[in-house]
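Q: Given only this backbone (121 positions), what sequence would you predict?
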């Protein structure tokens, strides 16, 4: 049974730069920081950085929840991301956007007023 998002792992060519950038984006420092893997706890979920990887935008897109999507797009693009796919309403007041991080990965953001935190296991 799939229980929901647990870990998102992004391959990065420059682990130090990616660690610094994602620390700024999410406002937290890694809880696990080793040369082979850097892990962040983001609202109870894992963001992992894997060194010496080949980033790409052809794979899955993971969406991180936000309360103010416009403000987060402005903040994260100011940190060096670019808009890969514009903010769009996908129905029922749910809005998404895709940003390209400086390392070649897609960082998805979602505002979903129907998300039920109590359903997270």
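A: Predicted residues:
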């Amino acid at each position: 049974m799939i229980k929901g998002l647990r870990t998102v792992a992004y391959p990065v060519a420059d682990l130090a730069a990616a660690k610094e950038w994602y620390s700024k984006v999410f406002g937290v420092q890694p809880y696990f920081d080793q040369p082979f893997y850097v892990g962040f706890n983001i609202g109870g979920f894992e963001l992992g950085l894997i060194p010496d990887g080949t980033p790409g935008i052809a794979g899955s897109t993971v969406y991180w929840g936000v309360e103010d999507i416009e403000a987060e797009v402005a903040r994260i693009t100011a940190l060096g991301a670019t808009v890969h796919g514009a903010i769009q309403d996908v129905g029922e007041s749910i809005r998404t956007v895709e940003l390209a991080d400086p390392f070649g990965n897609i960082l998805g953001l979602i505002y979903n007023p129907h998300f039920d935190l109590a359903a997270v296991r």
